[in-house]
Every structure is written in structure tokens, then in C-alpha cells.
Amino acid sequence: MTTGNLGWWLSALIVVCGCSTQTNIVAEDVRLNEISCVGVKTHTSTNAPTEFPVRVILNTNVLSEQDVEIFVESAERINSAMGQTIVTPVTNETGDDSAPNTVVMFTTAIHSGKAIGLTTHHTEGHSFVQVETSSTVGALMPQSFYTHEMVLEVATHEMLHALGLEHEADQGSLMASEADPSHHAISAETVCGLAQLVLTK
Ligand SMILES: [Zn+2]
After folding, report:
1. Ligand 1 centroid – CA 178 distance (Å)
2. Is residue 50 part of a domain?
3. Distance 154 CA to ligand 1 centre (A)
4. Which of 2, 22, 95, 161 has its CA 20 to 30 A from that of 57?
5. pLDDT, tens digit, for every residue of 156-185?
6. Distance, CA 90 to ligand 1 centroid (Å)?
7. Are the beta carbons of 17 and 45 closer than 8 angstroms?
């Protein structure tokens, strides 16, 4: 695979959850890590959790140690961006997965279009997040594609879907619909959307 081909493959790798979306303008002067949210347009899912922090279940019986580490890092990245605990990683051996406001992390080879991550919403803020990693390589990409940075990016992106955020138009945002860990940062729109979801609970 040439570098040029890789550039193409990096596009459109993350799919939308297909949820209904609401658009809000944040009116409150929320300030998180020096970001003012006044007037920021956010796109949030109507399937957002009903309570924060949300538990992120990491079943150590089915996840590799490396994947658990990356998923914990994803949660820490979100908490750090928000300056507060939004998600609480919970490791267990039972896959406790039925409680409200719980995200269950899976690693799996996804056979859905070009997706390398997929979030499925259920009721009461309960979601499944599927992520392809080096231990569950899909049909499209070689194992070398699933670097730490790539898996971290996809896991964080999908975790944010599970928390109620939708895709953003800004291609530099982590919540852009296409994966590119070398350019993507957690944007003001992401921070403000999440702040709004947390504040309105
Ligand atoms: Zn997505």
C-alpha cells in the first residue's frame, strides 16, 4: 500500500450512528480550560446519557491488556479536556453491561462499510462501542494500521458518540467523520457540546 493510497483509506473510516440529532447554541457562559462556549453551535444526540459521570465497562476477560490501556487513556483524554470526571473506566471480569448510563467497550472486526469504530445506542444512555484494534483486525486494513494513536483516536471518537455527541463539520476535529490522528484535536465544539449535555442533566 502506497502512502497515497493510505491517505485515501484514512477517509470515511468512522461511521455515523444514525441517531437523531439536535442542534443547540450554547447560551451559558461555560468556561472550560479557557474555552468560552457562548454562541458555539453544538450537535448532540437525543440518545445522550441521563446522568454523568458515565461508567465505561472494560471486561478484562475479553479485552487485551493493551486495549484496556488505550481505552482508559481515551477516558482520561476526555476527562482532561473537560477538567472534570465525565467518564469513569471500570475494569471487571463479568462484562456488567445492562445498567443505564453505561458504555461497554468491545474490540471487534467491523464489517460495515469502511467503519473502524461503531457506536450503538440503547435506552437510558446505555451504549455499545466497537473498535477495531491490532488484536481484531478488520477486512480493510493491515495490522500495522492499528497504531496506538489510531486506536486511541477511534476509541475516543466513539466514546464521545456514546456520550451524546455527533459529527462535526470541522475536519480538524476529533469528531470529524473521518479518522486522522495526526490532525485531530478535541475541539471547542466538542467540549461545549459535552458541557451542555452535562449541565442540562
Ligand atoms: Zn463517528
Report:
1. 8
2. yes
3. 8
4. 22
5. 999 999 999 999 999 899 999 888 888 888
6. 23
7. yes
Segment 12-68, tens digit of pLDDT = 344 444 456 667 766 555 656 667 788 888 888 888 999 999 999 999 989 999 999
Q: Has residue 167 been placed in a domain? A: yes
147 Cα–ligand 1 center, Å: 19
Q: Could you give the dihedral angle defined by the CA atoms of residues 16, 19, 120 and 166, in that order, rounded to the nearest 10 degrees?
A: 50
Domain count, the chain: 1
The answer to whether 34 and 154 are in contact (CB under 8 A) is: no
**Spatial CA neighbour of 57 closest among 94, 8, 10:** 94
Ligand 1 geometric centre to CA of 175 (Å): 6
Q: What is the model's pLDDT at position 66?
A: 95
Does any domain span residue 12? no
Taking the centre of ligand 1 as the mean of its atom positions, its distance from the CA of residue 102, in whole angstroms, is 18
What CATH number did the domain enclosing 82 receive?
A: 3.40.390.10
Query: How remote is the CA of residue 42 from the centroid of ligand 1, in Å?
Result: 15
Tell me which residue of 161, 167, 182 sits closest to 74, measured CA to CA: 161
Confirm whether 45 is domain-assigned.
yes
- Rounded to the nearest whole angstrom, what is the distance from the C-alpha of residue 75 to the centroid of ligand 1? 16
* Ligand 1 midpoint to CA 61 (Å): 27
